[in-house]
Design a protein that fits this description.
- The protein is mainly beta.
- The two termini are about 15 Å apart.
- It is built from one helix and five strands; from the N terminus they run βββββα.
- Strands 1-2-3-5-4 form a five-stranded mixed beta barrel.
- It is globular and about 45 Å long.
- The chain has one domain: OB fold (Dihydrolipoamide Acetyltransferase, E2P).
Length: about 80
């Protein structure tokens, strides 16, 4: 099964080697048929602390790095390989 890749915006980079990424998904409300936006925050591993608040990043599923981190930020080189 392929690993999921999500795209979002970095909202926090205060932790060492960790960024918090806000991922937004849109869907049609089942009854009202209006487009609804829902966001979720993911903690992702950033080995070199290279991403800052406001950066658009892609994250990929990975093995657990810590208690809350199950995602890693995809660099441009890794995205080209995937």
């Amino acid at each position: 099964m392929p690993k999921r890749i999500l795209q979002g915006v970095v909202v926090s980079d205060k932790n060492d080697k960790t960024v918090v990424v806000r991922v937004e998904r849109r869907f049609a409300h089942p009854l009202m048929k209006k487009t609804v936006r829902r966001t979720k925050r993911y903690q992702a591993h950033d080995e070199n602390n290279q991403f800052k608040v406001g950066d658009m990043v892609r994250i990929i599923e990975c093995a657990p790095v810590s208690r809350n981190k199950r995602w890693a930020v995809v660099t441009d080189q890794a995205a080209a390989e995937a």
